[in-house]
Write the structure tokens for this entry.
Amino acid sequence: MARKKQDEHKAGAPEWLATYGVMMTLLLVFFVLLFSMSSIDSQRYKAVVQSLSGSLGVLDSGTTVTLEPLINNFPSDSPTEAPTEYEEFSDMQEELQKILEESELNGQIKLEINERGLLIRFLDNVLFDSGKADLTPPAKQIISKVSEVLHDTNKKITVEGHTDNVPINTFKYPSNWELSTSRAVNVVKYMIDENDISPIRLSAAGYADQYPLRDNSSVEGRKNNRRVDMVILRSNKD
């Protein structure tokens, strides 16, 4: 009796398994794409599109799908500003820097983007004479120029007065609390009355000597602590 030929088996995985694997991979990419679009984040959407252009086996590259490019191209969820908001602050900072250079106030007004937003720090006697809270004529000019830049944004602004720890005791300002608060309020009032900044966007606060930048034991330290901080706040800061 002739022997029956044994069925020959092809090497490797069955063809149906390869098809099934490709289908599952494509479904995975599809749901990743849906997730990225649901977050309504244009940066993430662009990252996904760019990654897919070279990751799907059906495209020119002929490679398999990998999730690594999709993840690495997403912007990081850091505690700082979102990319678009950071760019807005950077543009404002650049405009303000030009104003400072024209006004020759580079050393007396500092600009910084931090966790709160864009900080404009007026040091020492840039805005006020010693022991007073009335804006000087040069102070009014610089605030008006700064306000021109701030008209282009709808972000909220807080103005904060700070002093050194040298006591003051006058009829108008019995302590540094009254002095620091009056200075902040006068800046806000000038921005509203003379520069048409919406009052709903503004707030004022006085902190006396409670938040020093330097040690008050030195003349230079006290000079740095006497300041007015104007902060253009991030969207999630009240």
